[in-house]
Structures are given as C-alpha cells and as structure tokens.
Amino acid sequence: GLLLIKETGAETIALKSLCEEVTTPQLYLNGQMVDPAAVTKLLSDKDAEVRYEAAQSLMWNDDASTELGLSVLRKGLDDRDPRVRFRVVETLLRYPKTRDLGISAVLDGLAADNYYAQKWAAYALFDIAALSKKGDLGKRKGEIIKALKRHITDHNPYARYISSIVLAAIDPASRSTAIPVFISGLSVNQDYGQDQAVRLFEEIAPDV
After folding, report:
1. pLDDT in tens, 121-148
2. Contact status, residue 18 vs residue 38, Cβ threshold 8 Å
3. By Cβ atoms counted within 10 A, which residue in 85, 127, 139, 208 is the most buried?
4. DSSP state of 108
5. Residues 6 or more apart from 87 whose CB is under 8 A from it?
6. Cα distance between residue 115 and residue 19, in whole Å
7. Chunked in runs of 10, what are the mean pLDDT values of the chain (208 residues)?
8. C-alpha R_g of the chain
C-alpha cells in the first residue's frame, strides 16, 4: 500500500500503510488507488506527524477536489495542529470548486486567538497572492483586502508582515501604507516567510 513516512534522526520510519486491497469508493493518491476511509483514519491519528503527512499526501492529487477527496479535506480543516490545517488549506485553494472554503479557512486562521494558527494562516497568504495574480480570487478579493488591512497592525508578527506584503501585491492602492510595515519587518532577525515575501516585493517593486 501507499506509505506515509517521516524522518527521525538518520532513520526513515514507515508510519502507516494506507491500504492493502481497495474496494469502492476509490481515491487516487500519488498514482495509487486508496480507500478514502483509510486516509480519513490517518487524519485522526494521535501522532501529529502522521496527520500532517496524510494531509500533505492530498496536496497534488487531482482527485482531492472530488466529493470523496473533499470529505477527507473537511476533516483535516478541524485538525488541532495548525500545520495540518495549513496543508489542507493549500489543497483547497488549488481547486476552483473548493477555493471559497480555503479562503474562508485562511481568514478564520488569521483572526484566531492563537499564535500558531495565525502563523500558518499567514503562510497561506502567499497562495492567496498567487491566485490574485492569476485573477482567481473572484468576489472574495474585496473581503480579503479588508482583512489584510486589519492584520497589518496585528500583534502577531507573521500575520503583520506577511499581510503587509500580500496586501501591497494585490491592492496597489494600499501600498503606501503596507510597504513601510513590510520593510520594518525586514530589520527583525526572524524568518517571517522572508524568502517568499522578498520575491513578492521584487515582483511589485518596478511599480512602486
């Protein structure tokens, strides 16, 4: 069956086998047929690393946008580990039919009263910026801009600095306010998604 693995020191440990023989209903993961119930079960595992890998296994799977895949992803959205939710959100944002759900999850994460929930939601904003560049935010763009304007003064540095550069990227009218916030974050000796943020800044710099 399909194995989910994690690194532990120098050893690679096989954590789980998703399936041996699969009957309907079916879901394809990484080119292999698996039972959605098996993936759902892994998303309930007590080990956060197992749940994280299970969520990640769905990321580049076209069947994740089907009803079967969506039922599995919905369970991942409720995971207690923000990293698992982040992987699920990334997948939801990839598909038009699940994008609204993904956007809502990002905005909810940014507004959460939890440092790590905000941190991982902020990282998902880079996916929001990429969607905006392709014109794929639709009617949600105005709502996202309003949220980002609130979060550029957030106490959470991830929410504050990443919101500022993404706001500058998707809303040129806000750049005079957003870019100084972003630049102030560059002087802080922390990794607030700086590699992605700097690349995003370089993309818009000629227009600033």
Report:
1. 999 999 999 999 999 999 999 999 999 9
2. yes
3. 85
4. H
5. 52, 55, 56, 58, 59, 76
6. 36
7. 37 36 46 66 76 65 61 79 85 86 95 93 94 94 98 94 94 94 75 74 73
8. 18
Sign of CA dihedral 71, 72, 73, 74: positive
Residue that is written with structure tokens 């120098």 in the block: 10
Instruction: Give the 3-state secondary structure of residue 87.
Output: helix
Distance CA 144, CA 152 (A): 12
Residue 176 CB: number of other CB atoms within 10 A? Answer: 10
Neighbours of 168 (CB within 10 A): 28
Residue pointed to by tokens 């982040």: 86
* DSSP-derived secondary structure for 24-65: SS-EEETTEEE-HHHHHHHTT-S-HHHHHHHHHTTTT-GGGG
142: Cβ–Cβ under 8 A, 6 or more apart, which residues? none
C-alpha distances in Å from residue 205, one per residue of 5, 83, 168, 201: 41, 31, 10, 6
Torsion sign over Cα 39, 44, 46, 48: positive
